[in-house]
Amino acid sequence: QLLRAFRTSTGMPPYAWLAQHRVARARGLLDAGLRPAEVAALVGFADQAHLTRWFRRVLGVTPAAYRNSVQDRAG
Fold this sequence. Notes:
By secondary structure, the chain is mainly alpha-helical. Helix content is 79%, strand content 0%. It contains five helices and no strands.
């Protein structure tokens, strides 16, 4: 089975792997100053709420909180 092989190789199902990589890309866009709604569309999430759910699941904070912390460090 392809799914079983993928999970054995990566340690996670394909949808989680894809979401994790989208979140990593989203971090870069948030670092560049884009708004979470823009980032959600650019990285392939259905909407900002979907981005927020996965972002919090992967990183433990919301995209807005992450963006604010980046701005605080830069400011």
